[in-house]
Amino acid sequence: MNNLKLIASDMDHILLTEKGELPSNLDQYILELDKLGIVFAIASRRPLYTLEDMFPEIKDKICFISGSGGIISYKGEVIFKSLLKPVDYQPMIRFVEDNTDGVAILSGLDSAYIARKYKGNETFLKTFYSNITFVEELDQVITEADKLTIYFPNKNSKQYFEETFKPNYGHDFSVTAGDAIWIDIMNHEINRGKAMKVLGEQLGIDSEQMMVFSDMEQYASYATGSNDHLGVLKMMEKILEIHGK
């Protein structure tokens, strides 16, 4: 841990409690790490503007890996973005409408775009998209977008993923499912692992100098306490103690 330069953490089920709350003193810990030259990165499927709204006081002191890796910002500056082409996402939107019971969400850089007929889902979706623009014809929207997300109110995203989206889009795009209600479609090879590699290259940080907190299936050197037991925060505290803070 003495050579640590970058800490990255997922949000849901890792940093956020199961009530969706951030640890009350997280900002101070991040600022202390920043003083030591250790970058703290938030990795999330949420868009950049939502993450910035969640960390208003320190958004210029932090790194955001947003949109599951589609957009990366470092201390207020976007340093990487992988945008879907309208010629690709417009047919996807029509496919969602014609073949599923999901709600298509076009993840633009400054707003989520959703068909107006789904406005009844606004309260729930605002948790993930702090800026939503409702439109009459979603498949006619042209904007800079890094991802198409499908929200499944009936919690059947994994079935649709296996039977519909993976066969139709998995060869040409990065397609992932999560929490039984989401499917994300991004450009090929876009994921959080690729984002960590890009971030390391941009900041001159080797993988041996990184620490990642995640609940995804992977090999791990350490195990922390659960999110409700503030596992990430306690590890941050330990790192600060090692560095004499």
Give a structural overview:
The two termini are 14 Å apart. It contains eight helices and twelve strands. The longest helix is centred in the middle third of the chain and has 14 residues. The model has no long low-confidence stretch (mean pLDDT 92). By secondary structure, the protein is an alpha/beta fold. Helix 5 links the parallel strand 7 and strand 8. A six-stranded mixed β-sheet has the order 5-4-3-2-1-12, with helices on both faces. The protein is elongated. The protein folds into two domains: 129 residues, Rossmann fold (3-Layer(aba) Sandwich); 102 residues, 2-Layer Sandwich (Hypothetical Protein, Haloacid Dehalogenase-like Hydrolase, Chain: A, domain 2). Helix 2 runs parallel beside helix 8.
Descriptive tags:
24% strand, Hypothetical Protein, Haloacid Dehalogenase-like Hydrolase, Chain: A, domain 2, six-stranded mixed sheet, elongated, HAD hydrolase family protein, 245 residues, alpha/beta, 31% helix, single chain, HAD-like_sf, 2 domains, Rossmann fold, hydrolase activity
- Cα distance spanning the termini: 14 Å
- CATH homologous superfamily assignment of the largest domain: HAD superfamily/HAD-like
- Radius of gyration based on Cα positions: 18 Å
Regarding quaternary structure, what we see is single chain
Give the low-pLDDT segments.
none
Q: State the strand order across the main sheet.
A: 5-4-3-2-1-12
Top CATH class of the largest domain: Alpha Beta
Query: CATH fold name of the largest domain, please?
Result: Rossmann fold
Number of domains: 2
